[in-house]
Amino acid sequence: MESKSGDGTTKNIRYRHAGDLTGEPPTREFAEVTIPVPWGHLAGKWYGPQDVQPILGLHGWQDNAGTFDLLVPLLPPDIAFLSVDLPGHGLSSRLPDGCYYNTIDNLYIIRVIMKQYKWEKLSLIGHSMSSIIGFVFAAVFPDKVDMFIGIDALKPHQRPFPSVIRTMETRMDEFLREDERNRNKSEPPSYTYNELIERIYVGTFHSVNKDLCKHMLARNIQKSEKYPDKYFFTRDRRLKFYNYAVGSQELCVEMARRITCPYLFIKARNSSYFEDKKYYDEVMDVLKTKPNFEYVEADGTHHLHINNPENVIGPIVDFINRFGPVARTKQAKAAKQAAQADKESKL
């Protein structure tokens, strides 16, 4: 994805998937889509049929729509899937200057996507940060979610209060610095392709296998205009100071009580809980009382859906087949036919 300057040279080169850099075909054919928002657009990758409602896929912190590049090809071909770059990530527009990134703001993003495609209800799969976003969305809008699959981050994390206050102080200072740098418009530091792969690998704490980091890289970089063999990261540097705070543990427990949709949570065995496990356990105990909540543990790191998609695709497909958009369409059709048959039997 590129544009030409007046002198015919290439500038502003952006990449949609790893193959735009390596020459490989996409892991599954997709259509690049854009969704208008007041400050620009959201970008996404639509896989599969476009005449049915897709499952909405949302990625983790500082990742992008490429997070599902290795999972989606394992889905049945009749399942549509829309993987979206959240604001400031991938090919989506950054928030305007001076705006802070927050968990709660992403509830608005989901509602915008639903409005764009005229969805009354949502089928959602989220990894990490977006697993938390999905948890909150399903609690706040229980009548707008048909099914939800969360991967490896259950709920808003709890921190000791002194740590929360200190984090607020330091992150605001750092955010102001990065916000000013954004307005500067100067090109960020650039790196060779191999250096970028290493930075992704180290940045995920080795959670993504190095040979698969290319899938997380492509949508987050741009060709340097200064150095022909180098690239720079395009994700908004203000994301480093993203505000995860949502509320107290008591609020998280109440959110868990409010979730009514079919809900599958997948926990990676080789990943942490991101908070004192007692908070995780308390919410999990609430969820496990629900008849439509399902829990799966699978081998792998925090990014197991990239490294080991074969370890999770079975329960995901089974869950989608029972509760996803195709299943809902079949159920609605069967109900309509049954009602028509009942009506005709009374004539």
Explain this structure to me?
Residues 54-309 form the AB hydrolase-1 domain. It holds the Pfam family Abhydrolase_1. Residues 1-23 are annotated as: Disordered. GO terms for molecular function: hydrolase activity. This is Probable serine hydrolase isoform X2. The protein has an eight-stranded mixed β-sheet with strand order 3-4-6-5-7-8-11-12, sandwiched between helices. The protein has a two-stranded antiparallel ribbon with strand order 1-2. Helices cover 36% and strands 17% of the residues. The chain starts with a strand and ends with a helix. The chain is of the alpha/beta class and 347 residues long. Mean pLDDT is 93; it is low at 2-10. A hairpin with a 5-residue loop joins β1 and β2 (10-11). It has helices at 19-22, 105-117, 129-140, 161-184, 193-203, 214-217, 249-258, 277-287, 304-307, 313-323, 325-345, and strands at residues 3-4, 10-11, 30-37, 40-47, 55-58, 81-85, 122-127, 145-151, 221-223, 231-233, 263-268, 293-298.
